[in-house]
Specification:
The complex is a heterodimer.
Chain A lengths: L1 E10 L3 H14 L3 E7 L6 E11 L10 E6 L2 H7 L3 E8 L1 H11 L6 H12 L4 H12 L4 H13 L13 E4 H11 L4 E4 L6 H9 L1 H4 L2 E3 L4 H13 L4 E5 L1 H17 L3 E7 L16 H6 L8 E3 L4 H18 L2 E7 H5 L1 E4 L44 E3 L13 H23 L4 E4 L4 E5 L4 H7 L6 E6 L1 E3 L3 H9 L4 E5 L5 H10 L5 E4 L8 H9 L2
Parallel strand pairs in A: 1-4, 4-5, 7-8, 7-9, 9-10, 10-12, 11-12, 16-17, 16-19, 19-20
Antiparallel strand pairs in A: 1-3, 2-3, 6-13, 11-18, 15-17
Chain B lengths: L29 H17 L8 E5 L7 H4 L3 E4 L5 H11 L4 E7 H7 L1 H10 L3 E7 L2 E2 L5 E2 L23 H8 L3 E6 L3 H13 L4 E6 L9 H8 E3 L9 H8 L12 E8 L25 H5 L4
Parallel strand pairs in B: 1-2, 1-3, 3-4, 4-8, 7-8, 9-10
Antiparallel strand pairs in B: 5-6, 7-10
Helix pairs in contact in B: 1-7, 4-5, 5-6, 6-9
Classes of the chains: A alpha/beta, B alpha/beta.
């Protein structure tokens, strides 16, 4: 079984909530759902839509041909009807308006009529739907339940779904949130910016039950400096932003490196320059993430390919940042953040959520002690010895220095960590290879979904997913490229930055690029079509 | 390099110092501020009102920032203009810390003015001491937001065009709960202010006049002549009286005007930290056990 459902309407009419409800219900019946969300930067009006791809097999992407169009306004029908599959159904005002009038309820009930109609088609028990509605909308959602019931009566059963064990339905945002909690997050700081704000909301809402602290300071500069203050004081700190906010944080990023204070930075990309396409997706900040900040310093940049990876990669970000006292940038994008994925299980990483803080620091403690691996054992204020962090070049105690010898020693000390980091990262599956074939697709981040779904439909292709962009696992990448005929980069960007990064690190040229920079994510169909032309 | 002595439960004035070479200009009033801070901290420790192990300072960049190297305290020498966010973060990271911020007037009211605005609103329990010398001294004396109109320097050869920010008025208007001014050359008085500011629960701001003897030479003789201690009759709980007092001097030097020093205003308001019931103990002392099924239940 594979069905694609579009739910659309002006902002505020409920398409996001309804699509999530439908997706989650299918998941609870054992189906796999990918939920893509497309919306403009406005609060009321415009045209929002969600595309749900529902399947009895794992699915990681959407398409633009629909079996169902659930319309909350006429515009939805006008825009999308051309993409209705043969035999597809359109449900809209014709069905919902009489019910809303009959119930004398608010227009928002149209959503519930559509839910009833849809699930009747699949022969799902009414009680199952109503129970689900109670869970989401509360026990007193009588009107909602009535509207679902009315919609259900309007519909007719065309198929009977086979029901199996419930799956997990989770967005990239939620995955980052629970990954951070699992990693032992203490303090999350962020200034609102799409598409990173949902992590702020997710964690803020759950702060009491998880004993964490969430705060929105006055701007991104305050965010990163306050996070470093919290980190200095001994908290596990994380910040979240998108490109514009990250630009404001870059001086602080350099400070994180100089002070060697652990910090995880969630960078949710969207198309730029400047404000760009605020509510859409893109991967144009790769080189920015790799190079941001004045001076030469170590950082880790990693990127998850789906929500399940987002959990464990977030945990890895905390682990590496705290163990090696380096800033870690968790690079993602709107497509991953705001899409829902389905998995039959979600696991946390096997890494411990250690703090890497000395239990009993010695009296003669040196905040920047030079050690074999460059990592100075960390103490925090309040433990006894004086603890220092200094943005100026400093000696082992953290006092400001200007002499040539120590300047070199400290630069070398900080870079000494690189070899150890590299070794550690090889244990964390820094790249993954999918499929068989002599040709190679390469990408990082959220493009994984469309590529995985396209892979069975294209002949003779492997897919190399790169999850660690810094330090880049250059040897494995070289090996994969060298044994391939055609090598093709897939990236949501204008220039295909990853090809440049690979060239710089391996000397190898990625000859072909499939690029998409309209603010929308790839679909398998788009990829297959482009591949035919290469 | 000799190891510094650690900050102990008791802290004599000597123990609060370091062996680092002082690189302030000879005669710079910053040394007076350093001394007042040391005495204030030492006395608070002796009086049992301060745990020096749990005290941390934050500095910005500029002449004032050198105090980081001269105090044997937990310290964070941060970026220019970003003292207050670091202070705030420290309180969020460990509410038990007594946090002392040191900034310059350029640092605080040019580069970092947005943070000052919000620090006054937030009312976190931190003490912010601004070394007001009315120039960017370390970069050879350019005008700051607190420099008087008409001041001529390398970047303003035609004369500084704007009126200075009156930081006392600014702090009062923005809701700071402890607002005072000290003079670097009146050590015992400044020391008393610092002690009171540290003991105040909430955001304490002390504007410390620190006349630059190289790039703003006219201020020291002026201040020596015109500084006076706020009368005991001044009602520190009265905001209007505080504003009136704050407007007596506008940071300019055209004609002799009396410059009040002392506490302008003090009031009680819930602290920033108190809005989070979960912010009770230092995070680093918490061992987190992760209940994975509980965290993930909502996605099933």
């Amino acid at each position: 079984m594979e069905k694609t459902i579009l739910i659309g309407g002006a902002a505020g009419l409920g398409s996001a909530v309804t699509s999530h409800f439908i997706g989650k219900l299918f998941c609870s019946l054992g189906y796999y759902v990918f939920n893509y969300r497309d919306y403009p930067s406005l609060i009321k009006g415009g045209h929002n839509f969600n595309i749900l791809k529902v399947s009895d097999k794992p699915v990681y992407s959407h398409e633009y041909h629909y079996d169902f169009i659930l319309a909350l306004d006429q515009k939805t029908i006008d825009i999308h009807k051309k993409d209705l599959k043969k035999g597809g159904c359109v449900y809209g005002a014709k069905e919902t308006e009489p019910v809303v009038q009959k119930l004398q309820g608010p227009n928002i009930l149209a959503n519930d009529v559509l839910i009833g109609l849809l699930f009747k088609h699949f022969g799902v028990d009414l009680d199952v739907i109503l129970n689900s509605a109670e869970k989401v909308f509360g026990k007193n959602a009588d009107l909602i339940k009535k509207a679902i019931q009315e919609g259900y009566q309007l519909g007719c059963e065309k198929e009977k779904l086979k029901i199996s064990k419930s799956n997990y339905f989770i967005s990239g945002t939620e995955a980052i949130g629970i990954g951070a909690i699992a990693a032992g997050l203490d303090v999350y700081l962020a200034y609102p910016m799409t598409p990173a704000s949902p992590v702020l909301h997710f964690l803020a809402k759950r702060q009491l039950e998880n004993n964490i602290l969430v705060f929105q300071p006055e701007n991104e500069i305050a965010v990163i400096n306050a996070a470093l203050g919290a980190s200095f004081a001994g908290a596990k700190a994380m910040v979240g932003t998108s490109g514009g906010g990250f630009a404001l944080m870059t001086e602080g990023l350099s400070l994180a490196a100089m002070t060697e204070l652990p910090l995880v930075i969630y960078l949710g990309q969207r198309p730029a320059p400047a404000t760009g396409l605020a509510t859409h997706t893109g991967q144009g900040d790769l080189k920015f993430a790799l190079n941001a900040g004045h001076g030469e310093f170590l950082r880790v940049v990693l990127s998850p390919g789906d929500a399940r990876e987002a959990i464990t990669r977030t945990e890895e970000a905390f682990y590496l940042s705290n163990k090696y006292r380096v800033p870690v940038i968790f690079l993602s994008d709107k497509h991953l953040a705001e899409s829902n994925y389905t998995f039959n299980e979600i696991k946390k990483s096997a890494l411990p959520n250690e703090r890497f803080i000395l239990e009993n620091p010695p009296q003669d403690y040196k905040s920047y002690k030079i050690t074999a691996n460059g990592v100075s054992p960390r103490a925090v204020p309040g433990q006894g010895p004086v603890v220092r962090a200094n943005s100026y070049e400093h000696n082992e105690y953290g006092f400001t220095i200007e002499d040539e010898d120590f300047a070199v020693k400290m630069q070398d000390k900080r870079f000494k960590k690189l070899d150890f980091l590299k070794k550690e990262i090889t244990k964390l599956n820094p790249v993954s290879v999918y499929g068989r074939g002599s040709n190679l697709l390469i990408s990082y981040g959220s493009t994984k979904g469309a590529i995985l779904d396209a892979l069975p439909k294209i002949k003779n292709f492997r897919f190399l997913q790169i999850s660690y962009l810094k330090p880049l696992p250059a040897e494995i990448i070289s090996r994969e490229i060298k044994k391939s005929k055609k090598v093709i980069l897939v990236e949501n960007g204008v220039k295909g930055s990853l090809a440049d990064v690979i060239k710089q690190e391996t000397g190898l040229t990625v000859k072909y690029k499939i690029l998409k920079y309209d603010g929308r994510p790839f679909t398998p169909e788009f990829l297959i079509d482009k591949l035919k032309k290469i | 390099m000799k190891p510094p002595t650690s900050a102990k439960a008791t802290a004599g004035k000597e123990e609060l110092g370091t062996k680092e070479e002082k690189t302030w200009c000879p005669g710079c009033p910053n040394s007076g501020i350093l001394n007042s801070v040391k005495v204030a901290l030492s006395e608070l420790v002796t009086e049992g009102k301060l745990n020096i192990k749990n005290t941390a300072l934050v500095t910005g960049i500029g002449c004032h920032g050198k105090i980081y190297d001269y105090l044997n305290l937990n310290g964070f020498n941060g970026l220019h203009g970003r003292v207050l966010p670091v202070c705030l973060g420290m309180k969020l990271g460990n509410p038990d810390l007594t946090v002392l911020g040191f900034g310059g007037d350029g640092d605080t009211f040019d580069e970092g003015v947005s943070h000052f605005v919000h620090a006054c609103r937030y009312n976190a329990d931190i003490t912010m001491m601004v070394h007001t010398n009315q120039v960017f001294a370390l970069t050879t004396g350019q005008a700051t937001a607190v420099t008087e109109k008409g001041f001529i320097d390398g970047s303003t050869p035609l004369g500084q065009g704007e009126k200075p920010i009156n930081s006392i008025v600014l702090a009062l208007e923005l809701g700071a709960t402890f607002v005072a001014r000290g003079y670097a050359l009146q050590g015992p008085h400044l020391k008393t202010l610092i002690k009171k500011a540290i003991l105040h629960k909430g955001f304490s701001f002390i504007d410390i006049l620190q006349p630059c003897i190289v790039y703003h030479k006219h201020s020291m003789p002026y201040l020596n002549k015109n500084v006076y201690k706020i009368e005991e009759t001044h009602d520190v709980g009265n905001l209007n009286q505080a504003l009136e007092k704050a407007r007596e001097w506008d940071y300019s030097y055209e004609k002799d005007t009396k410059v009040p020093i002392g506490i302008f205003y003090e009031t009680a308001r819930p602290t920033f930290e108190s809005q989070w019931p979960q912010l009770r103990t230092p995070w680093h002392t918490i061992r987190r056990k992760i209940d994975w099924p509980k965290i993930t239940r909502e996605f099933l």
